[in-house]
Amino acid sequence: MACARGAGRAVAAATVAQPGKRPPEPEPELEEPSLLDAPAPSRRLGSDPGLSDSDSEESVFSGLEDSGSDSTEDATASEEEGEGTSEQRGRMDRSPGQQARTPCSRMEVASMPGEDEYAEDSSDEEDIRNTVGNVPLEWYDDFPHVGYDLDGRRIYKPLRTRDELDQFLDKMDDPDYWRTVRDRMTGHSVRLTGEQVALVQRLQRGQFGDVSFNPYEPAVDFFSGDLMIHPVTNRPADKRSFIPSLVEKEKVSRMVHAIKMGWIQPRRPRDHSPSFYDLWAQEDPNAVLGRHKMHVPAPKLALPGHSESYNPPPEYLPSEEECLAWEQQEPEERKLSFLPRRFLSLRAVPAYGRFIQERFERCLDLYLCPRQRKMRVNVDPEDLIPKLPRPRDLQPFPTCQALVYRGHNSLVRCLSVSPDGQWLASGSDDGSVRLWEVATARCMRTVPVGGVVKSVAWNPHPTVCLVAVAVEDTVLLLNPALGDRLVVGSTDQLLSAFTPPLDPASQPAHWLEASQEERQDGLRLRIHHGKPVTQVTWHGRGDYLAAVLATPGHTQVLIHQLSRRRSQSPFRRSHGQVQRVAFHPTRPFLLVASQRCVRLYHLLRQELTKKLMPNCKWVSSLAVHPAGDNIICGSYDSKLVWFDMDLSTKPYRVLSDLLQNPLLVPVKVLKGHALTRDLGVLDVAFHPTQPWVFSSGADGTLRLFT
């Protein structure tokens, strides 16, 4: 056991007697300073200079007893830090059968007052208790020790029993916590001195570690520009400096051979002329673009004629009849895109309204229209045109406009014809539904609905007089009270015969009765969906109604039963945004058209029967033949796709392909609606019994073509 007192470095010299060796010599006198100059033995494992008794008690060892390494405590460092001195305990090496103790008097002699034990200490080496070298310390993560000392004994890791709360309290209480780091070689905490902190801060700022180093010292010119008497080096030249190089001779011979073969050409003088040129000016064979064999020059604009003059001759000025005929023609059918006018002087000519548009279209023609030379094929143009039957052989079909139904103040988005063809219902953006008599174009009734009407559907059953109207998130069921009074009365009796159940089940839609005032306008029921409704359509028997909602999800399509006032969602998951739905006229099928495909569901089996692929970008409309064997889909990319249900899921015909022999022949172009807000015809429907066509447009009118 070693006893340490005072503030000096306590050094314990242990004498161990080994068998077979001479006993140690007697100790020298106290006056000799050999003890002070002796090297200090190894310290105890886990000890750290400057730690107090409390710190040593907190550093608990893992329980594996040290094999006998010595320990010394530096009390002088503790005095410099203001922590005071305390007795330190250490262990001495024990040999089998014998133990040597250093007397406390020897320790007192070593720490005599008035002598500085660091006066002769010139060692500046770091702590080398752990002698593992450059071995990665991660190799010791799974072991209780962290390395070995000079004697080959294990240095055990201190057991960390302090949790995060204790560490936080130490951080708050200890003012030097910010300068305390952990030594990975020993596992102990080390407090950085002020010089070490300043060194770290300088390195973080990108400065040099040494404070006294000046990186901007003036450069020393060792070699001056003045001519010196004596040379800097006076080494004699080598022999190889007087003999031609064989490597250079080989390189020169290669270059000469390349020049003779024409592989190396002399540098041509650079042409400093501008590299840009007029793209359309020079088109002769010697021009830049003339060297390209497949180059096609841009088409030239037609030169202005007499009709474009500000004072054209009288024969070029159109009459009033010609002006009216020009206005009624389509823009692509007009010979001139403007009407010639006469002005007294050039100063009176106003600005051309379509100037910017025409210049922009000209630019598009120049850089977007492909121009390529192709070999001309000697084919009769008549052979490329499909042979169509004569329209006279396909009569009857509508050929002229018969009636105009006026009364709406805004866009007429939808229309529907009664099953007997006597009445017509229309919905508009002015917030009203109008009921018309087909034969006289007289408005029989106007029902205000308080919103934009998206869809109107007349019940197809002849014994039910109901009209379904889609307004915002509600489907309104109207009894127009037109036609046979027995049918009107039986419809009201059918609706009033419903008895609500005692325990109603939860439904995706709410059924509400109309008030007494609303019943006078013809309203009977309201079906609230909570989401905007875009389309309503009836089943052929008149008891079921399908509604399409505008929001995505599996509840986009809802089916309502009128007799039981029940609503249900037939799908569990969504297959894309639904555009249109339709009931099969003869079989229990439901057709659902999304943006890219049309799905056919069997309502009784509740399964998917077919999936039709129209190969269109965006399906916009859907129509089913009354026999149910053929389906036609329209798209926003100007295509009509015809499906034969008995053949395949692929289109039977694409009607925009004029090179094939179509079975649906365009026989007449019906015109009558005026463009409003860049919109024309919005909805079309056939008469149920006559070869008539009804159309609604953005000009607020409905038209009948017969």
Brief account:
With 706 residues, the protein is an alpha+beta fold. It is built from twelve helices and 29 strands.
Strand content: 15-25%
Sum up the overall morphology in one term. extended
Distance linking N and C termini = 126 Å
Largest sheet: 5 strands, antiparallel
**Strand arrangement in the largest pleated sheet:** 10-11-12-14-13
Q: If helices are DSSP runs of H or I spanning 4 or more residues, what is the number of helices?
A: 12
Average pLDDT rating: 76
Instruction: Count all strands and give the number.
Output: 29
Helix and strand composition category: alpha+beta
> Any idea what the radius of gyration is?
52 Å
Identify low-pLDDT runs: 1-115, 117-125
Query: How helix-rich are the residues, as a percent range?
Result: 10-25%
Question: What does this entry look like structurally?
Answer:
Residues 140-398 form the BOP1 N-terminal domain. Keywords: Nucleus, Repeat, Ribosome biogenesis, rRNA processing, WD repeat. One of its GO terms (molecular function) is ribonucleoprotein complex binding. With 706 residues, this protein is of the alpha+beta class. The protein is built from twelve helices and 29 strands. The strands form eight sheets. A five-stranded antiparallel beta sheet has the order 10-11-12-14-13. It has a four-stranded antiparallel beta sheet with strand order 5-29-28-27, with no helix packed on it. The protein has a four-stranded antiparallel beta sheet with strand order 6-7-8-9, with no helix packed on it. Strand 25 (640-644) and strand 26 (653-654) form a beta hairpin. The longest helix is centred in the middle third of the chain and has 16 residues, at 246-261. The chain is extended and about 130 Å long. Mean pLDDT is 76; it is low at 1-115 and 117-125.
